[in-house]
Amino acid sequence: LSSNDNGGGGRSGALSSPPVIEVPQKIDVNPPKGTRDFPPEDMRLRSWLFQNFREVSRLFGFEEVDFPVLESEALFVRKAGEEIRDQLYNFKDRGNRRVALRPELTPSLARLVIQKGKSVSLPLKWFAIGQCWRYERMTRGRRREHYQWNMDIIGVPEVTAEAELISSIVTFFKRLGITASDVGFKVSSRKVLQEVLRCYSIPENMFGKVCIIIDKIEKIPIEEIKGELVSVGISEAAIEELLQVLSVKSLDKLEEILGDAGDAVKDLKQLFSLAEKFGYSDWIQFDASVVRGLAYYTGIVFEGFDREGKLRAICGGGRYDQLLSTFGGDDIPACGFGFGDAVIVELIKEKGLLPELSHEVENIVCPLDKELQGAAATVATILRQKGQSVDLVLENKPLKWVFKRAARINAGRLILVGNSEWQKGMVGVKILSTGEQYEIKLDELE
Ligand SMILES: OCc1cccc(Br)n1
Fold first, then answer.
1. Nearest Cα residue to atom 5 of ligand 1
2. Which of 107, 309, 398, 419 could disulfide-link 75, Cβ–Cβ 3.0 to 4.6 Å?
3. How many CB atoms lie within 10 A of CB 22?
4. 142 Cα nearest atom in ligand 1
5. Which of 101, 132, 144, 292 to mutate to test the pocket of ligand 1 (most atoms within 8 A of CB)?
6. Cβ burial 173-206 (10 Å sphere, 16+ → b, else e)
7. Among the atoms of ligand 1, which is closest to the Cα of residue 338?
8. Structure pTM?
């Protein structure tokens, strides 16, 4: 890299002068507001969760991808009044570029697909697990970061793609012991709204805005919803029809209202038929009020919810056939979902499904005096080369300390390196669960 390469592919130019940073007297040992540390116990749970994300992604033949946490702000700035825009963690960097900590992964995925262009063949089945950010006033005490598992299918216009994605989430829930009695998916299509808006000759470019307002239907009073719809120019008659359609909970009723000419009913019927074949009909229900809060959805949308109604949405996704073209890419159909790492943990705690995850080490190796520290390192290395985990005692400690540490790290065996045994090429072994102990030749240790 040349000396002034700014690495970001942008023009190399003068950097703004570094801000004067006061050196703090005392460091705050807590993480920044709204963020989390993951000490070992919490990291074991997170790793377990991510291992399940990855295993399900593997079962469905998806490839893992990743992107920078820092993206151009332009990726997330849409004019539809989304909450995600109001909460953007954005700033100008020292190269004067408008950047943001990503609030979601889908735009980055779309950017990468466009970047790859013809060098990748469709369909793409990509998944990512990444930290996403929002800047919320801490008055609400909410987190500012979470990890999201995303799975996306790029290049498949048929509803089979959405059916496959929902199947992958059901597979994930089942792996954790969660059943259709615990959670369900509310499924609808934005084409429902589109077909109603078209009946009232509401221009297409209003579609995203209306969806974002409707998405707040369970979060703010209905009068405010109506007021916001009026403020973007929707007529009273259209609002009444919209709200009536949004209360529909059956596909047959929807068909009565919309007829079967449009794609909304056809897509949804196909999805419910495929759900039967995938074996997850018990998990899904039509609910016209589901629109999701992202402007770029264009078709089927779905969200996972806990049937006791105690938690926020567990996951959500849908079809976004226009996103790539709005970024200047080809007109490529796409659908995907996001699954956060926080609500699911609340759910498995609620359901008593938290896994037992302890730190374990197969061996603790201890020299019986400091002259044997080198010999102990040799023993540890031999065991590690055999694929055995070893906690090597690194200081001259009394045996009482070693036994305490062995218990704390759940060691399976204590390997003692003593002078007389070592002279014979042997070590002492103590099986900590049974107390059985014996000497063994080093080259027979396994
Ligand atoms: O669910 C929206 C969202 C985006 C980024 C960070 C967090 Br916490 N939550």
1. 133
2. 107
3. 6
4. 8
5. 132
6. beebebebebbbbbbbbbbbbbbbbeeeebeeee
7. 1
8. 0.93
Alpha carbon of 80 to ligand 1 centroid (Å): 18
**Cα(315) to centroid of ligand 1, in Å?**
11
pLDDT, one tens digit per residue, over 192-228 is: 999 988 888 888 888 888 999 999 988 899 999 999 9
Closest CA to 69 of 85, 86, 89, 54: 89
CA 2, 109, 125 angle in degrees (round to 5)?
125
Q: Which residues contact 315 (CB under 8 A, 6 or more apart)?
A: 169, 303, 304, 337, 338, 339, 340, 344
Distance 145 CA to ligand 1 centre (A): 6
Output the CA 298–ligand 1 centroid distance in Å: 21
Which parts of the chain register pLDDT below 50?
A: 1-11
312-332 pLDDT tens trace: 999 999 999 999 999 999 999
Cβ contacts of residue 44 below 8 Å, gap of 6+?
357, 358, 359
Query: Which pLDDT belongs to residue 2?
Result: 38
The ligand 1 site (C-beta within 6 Å) comprises 103, 132-134, 143-146, 340
H or E segment at 401?
A: helix 399-408
Atom of ligand 1 at shortest range from CA of 342:
8
The one-character DSSP state at 81 is -
Q: Is 377 exposed, middle or buried (0-12, 13-18, 19+ CB in 10 A)?
A: middle
Residue minimizing CA distance to atom 1 of ligand 1: 340
Shortest CA distance to 76 belongs to which of 106, 56, 97, 54?
A: 106
Query: Under DSSP, is residue 180 helix (H, G, I), strand (E, B) or coil?
Result: coil
